[in-house]
Amino acid sequence: MIIKTKKDIPPSEITDPLIFRERRKIIKAMLATMVAGAGISPTLADNNQSVWPDLPKGDFSAEFLTPTPAELIKNHTNYYEFAFNKKDPASLAQKLRTDPWTIEISGEVEKPGRYYLEDILRQQTLQEHIYRFRCVEAWSMVVPWVGFSLGSLLKTFKPLSTANFVKFTAVHQPEVMPKQLNNAMLEWPYVEALRMDEAMHPLAILAVGMYGDMLPKQNGAPLRLVVPWKYGFKSIKAIVKIELLKRPPITTWNKFAPNEYGFYSNVNPAVAHPRWSQNSERQLGSGFFTPRRQTELFNGYGEQVASMYSDMDLRHFF
Amino acid sequence: MVLRINNLRSLALAGCLIPLLWLFIDIAFDNLGSNPIQALHIRLGDWSLRFLCLTLAITPIQTVTKWRGMTDYRQMLGLYAFFYATLHVLAYLLVDHALMWRMVGIDVIESPYIWFGVLAYLIIFSLALTSPKWAKKRMGKTWKKLHRFIHIAAVAAIVHYFWQLKGNLAEPLFYSIVVFLLLSFRILVWVKNRQFSRMMIPTGQRILAVAEKQGVMPVVIRKRR
Fold first, then answer.
1. In this complex, which of B37, B107, B113 lies closest to A275 when CB atoms are compared?
2. Residue A116 falls within a domain, yes or no?
3. Considering only CA atoms, which of B81, B45, B69, B56 is closest in space to residue B172?
4. pLDDT for B71
5. A301 within some domain
6. Does pLDDT of B223 surpass 50?
7. How far is the C-alpha of B118 from the C-alpha of B115, rounded, in Å?
8. CATH code, A123
9. What are the φ/ψ torsions at residue B134 (nearest 5 degrees)?
């Protein structure tokens, strides 16, 4: 299936020749790395940055969108475990230990256990997914993720019919995460969750890379969730635990301010945050004096996901 | 002597433009991060709030140091608060929204934190309009009453700052403390003056108080209290 665009691509979304050339350069660099490191398979065991050139595109990858330049994505992250600003995690997160990395699967599944990430990756098909990413703070970007379907991973653990929700828990490394060390602001570790049907939706992926390269640590390495029709904070970083549950778990931001951050947190321009409008967004990389982008319902993925919420009042279940 | 003071004044006048120059340099060298539009907007708002705090600090400093003659600087700082606030508003309308009025309208209506920014701006706008000496003379007592609204502007500006943030409250907290201290100083002085008046005017001598109210009392006696 392909995301249909009702309107022409606005000029603001046509690739700037400069960025285009830069992408060529990146591709060339990737090819060079491949030649140089021929024979080395992209495992996470070695510290070398592995690349995934020429991955097949995901079914919903928006090829008509220009990805936001990698430098902007790398230097603009909400990673509250490290810092409350968007710049500092880029350097602070480098201390995060990501190797080896295991993911614990538990709850309503036939095959619970603790799995090495590389073992999981061996069974999954990596694809490139160019998705829109919309933060609850009204800025947005377009990210070429490298990832695999969350649903196909969950199926390998054989969920029971009693599994109604999927809970994700992020890493707890207070020795390198200053805000965890100080127990600052949020309750740590960070927790997010999806309804089972949302988790099984083909749009929902687990990402291990972006721009054909391994995920930078500040962007959620080694494994993060990406649910493009929801506000960014739902897409939890550095996942260490996945639990399938009967009842909805309490999630981090929802617990912090239940009237501001709902469980669903679907992108919706018609439902304002109690303190600010969600009607428009500033796209990273856009120049001065360029208009903001009109935010779309479900971040533009309505065709794919709206049916999951057809009987719900989105104002109430924000 | 006069020349020196004038020099100091021009120096201060120019110095207050450094933040703007600094901002232009950061724009030129692409130093504003991944979201330069927001960074520019926030920077201008920050400087407006800083100048507002400095303006509010002048009177307490005068009271404590008994150094007169800072009123001119108070006016200048206040006008700079207005200057940066105006750039902040223009950045919002032009740089961020590119004058898309429908989007601006929805944004303002749906964003309570902006309401407080608008309130603060309307207040300092009217204070800037009435800031020339002739306006002060013409308005008489109303001028002082109107210009007391600067306190409301400061509180509104801080609410405006607080309410847009998702979590990190350290910076707005700092400004809240500054404004709280400045306001409490004013309130303390006011309470102290009131207590003094009560102590100095026994009920039997109400006539004195009435005389004072009507401005019949010689200035010398008033000063002594």
1. B113
2. yes
3. B45
4. 81
5. yes
6. no
7. 5
8. 3.90.420.10
9. -65, -35
* Interface pTM, i.e. ipTM: 0.80
B28 touches chain A (CB under 8 A): no
In a domain, A6, yes or no: no
CA distance A274 to A260: 6
Does A294 sit within 8 Å of B107, measured CB to CB? Answer: no
Q: By CB neighbour count within 10 A (0-12 exposed, 13-18 middle, 19+ buried), where does B61 fall?
A: middle
For A265, phi and psi rounded to 5 degrees? 50, 45
* Band of residue B221 on the pLDDT scale cut at 50, 70, 90: very low
Residues of A in contact with B163 (CB under 8 A): 275-276
Q: Does B31 touch chain A (CB under 8 A)?
A: no
Contacts of B113 in chain A (CB under 8 A): 275-276
Q: Hey, of B34, B100, B106, B115, which one would you mutate to test binding to chain A, going by the most A CBs within 10 A of its CB?
A: B34
Q: How far apart, in whole angstroms, are the C-alpha atoms of residue A73 and residue A89?
A: 12
CB contact under 8 A, A275 and B36: no
**B108-150: pLDDT as tens digits:** 999 999 999 999 999 999 999 999 989 999 999 999 999 999 9
Please name every residue paired with A161 in a beta bridge, in sequence order, or none if there are none.
none
User: pLDDT at residue B189 above 60?
Assistant: yes
Residues 6+ apart with CB under 8 A from A301: A3, A60, A132, A203, A228, A229
pLDDT greater at residue B40 or residue B193: B40
* Other Cβ atoms closer than 10 A to B86: 16
As a whole number, mean pLDDT of residues B156-181 equals 86
pLDDT tens readout for residues A261-306 = 999 999 999 999 999 999 999 999 999 999 999 999 999 999 999 9
Check residue B215 and give its pLDDT.
54
Low-confidence ranges of chain A (pLDDT < 70): 1-50
Chain A residues with CB under 8 Å of B35 CB are 76, 86, 139, 282, 284
| Domain range for A166 | 11-309
Domain presence at residue A85: yes
State the smallest CA–CA distance between residue B43 and chain A in angstroms. Answer: 15
The pLDDT of residue A127 is: 97
Q: What is the pLDDT of residue B171?
A: 77
If one counts the domains in chain A, the total is 1
Distance from CA of A285 to the nearest CA of B (A): 7
CB count in 10 Å sphere of residue A310: 6
